[in-house]
Write a structure and sequence with these properties.
This protein is α+β, with helices and mostly antiparallel strands. Helices cover 20% and strands 43% of the residues.
Length: 407
């Protein structure tokens, strides 16, 4: 009997030790982590901060000069699960010794899985970051894809402390917040905002950037050349998309999030200035525009104005599309209306609005006066990463809206 008690006591001690080890292994440390995705043999580093409130975890994804809040975080045993902000994208990882290893998955795309790992305590994208100011300024840029198709852009870069920051702006939008470093006569820029996975590299030769390379996600690749030009310009974003000859008004009937049809003929929209926002929740530029519109609408919704988001989602299934839009509405605190207008191609958007010449960009905004006449169609969106270009858009939008509301 005495021997049996000793055996039971020993088993209890071993169980306590084992549980103690298990608890130690699943201690998810709060603070700054450095994550890394691997795409096209490139390491794409980024930072995130893990926060804990009582027993709940949150994550702040740090991308250059922006922070994206992630509140859907689960720690089950030694496994961590979190979604990428408003996007239908998730990370699943195992935790061991302050290291996370796992996968990054775009849930809506077939076989879109990338390796992921993260290490605790690394506060920058890279150790020993350094940068010079020789890349500061505006660069007239031409991207070329594998089929020889060329796209004009403007590169905007500047040294900020030890980092090089900036973005590329095109006629359909910008590449959002980029940051990185310089080494000798070369520059390296990166972004990861939950959806965009970008790396850029180029070599400076006099006032030209040569041997430019741009990797995007799992398969995207382009080359580019840039020439220093402080006066570089892109086509006027208000002239690229327009109504076909003979048309002055927009007409549609799309289901709202409650499934009921929504039309500009509805009483709610009569005798009001209307902003139609063509977007998709999968689109980071659309996220930037939605943040702007959501804030603007909160300040102005007591006036004769409404915003309707025309959502074009990656799957034709209504319930799926509705859930993605509702997630965006909740996370970005959007008060204005949304409809499910089609799927996430410019062809689908163009076919759903046949009175327009062609939708070439997500996002695109259509501004309609109180009489129902289209007054402006703005292609793309120059987000906060573009600096003065964003400020110019805001000023121009506010001026037009004031004029239309005063009519």
């Amino acid at each position: 009997m005495h021997l049996i008690k000793k055996i039971v006591y020993l088993l209890i001690i071993l169980n306590v030790i084992s549980c103690g080890k298990e608890k130690e292994e699943i201690n998810l440390k709060t603070g700054i982590w450095r994550g890394e995705l691997v795409a096209q043999n490139n390491q794409i580093p980024f930072n995130f901060e893990i926060l804990k409130d009582n027993e709940s975890f949150n994550i702040n994804l740090i991308n250059g000069n922006e922070v994206l809040e992630i509140d859907e975080v689960k720690l089950l045993g030694d496994s961590l699960f979190f979604d990428m902000h408003i996007f239908d994208i998730s990370i699943k990882a195992k935790l061991k010794d302050s290291i996370l290893t796992g996968t990054y998955t775009k849930n809506y795309a077939k076989d879109y899985i990338l390796p992921f790992k993260a290490v605790y305590g690394k506060e920058n994208r890279f150790d020993n970051l350094n940068s010079t100011n020789v890349f500061n300024g505006t660069w007239e840029t031409v991207f070329t894809d594998n089929e020889g198709k060329k796209t004009n852009a403007i590169g905007i870069f500047k040294k900020e402390q030890s980092k090089l920051i900036g973005t590329f702006l095109t006629k359909t939008g910008d590449y959002r917040f980029l940051d990185g470093y310089t080494k000798n006569d070369s520059m390296y820029l990166y972004t990861f905002d939950g959806n965009h996975i970008f790396k850029f590299s180029a070599k400076k030769e006099n006032d030209t950037l040569i041997k430019g390379k741009y990797w995007s996600g799992k398969t995207g690749y382009k080359t580019f050349v840039s020439k220093k030009n402080e006066n570089a310009k892109l086509p006027n974003a208000n002239e690229l998309t327009f109504l076909k000859e003979g048309h002055e008004k927009i007409d549609f009937s799309f289901p709202g999030l409650d499934g009921n049809p929504v039309s500009l003929n509805d009483e709610k929209y009569q005798n009001k200035v209307i902003v139609l926002q063509i977007l998709g929740t999968w689109c980071p530029n659309c996220m930037d525009e939605t943040k702007f519109y959501a804030d603007w609408y909160k300040k102005n919704k007591n006036k004769d104005v409404e915003i309707i988001g025309l959502a074009y989602e990656v799957k034709p299934d209504f319930e799926y599309a509705k859930s993605r839009v509702q997630t965006m509405k909740d996370k970005l605190s959007v008060d204005y209306d949304f409809v499910i207008a089609g799927t996430s191609t410019t062809k689908s958007a163009s076919e759903s609005l046949p009175m327009i010449n062609k939708i070439i960009s997500f996002p695109t905004s259509i501004i309609i006066d109180k009489k129902g006449t289209v007054r402006r169609i703005h292609t793309g969106f120059s987000g906060p990463a573009t600096g003065i270009y964003y400020e110019e858009f805001v000023d121009e939008f506010n001026q037009l809206m004031k004029e239309l509301l005063d009519e």
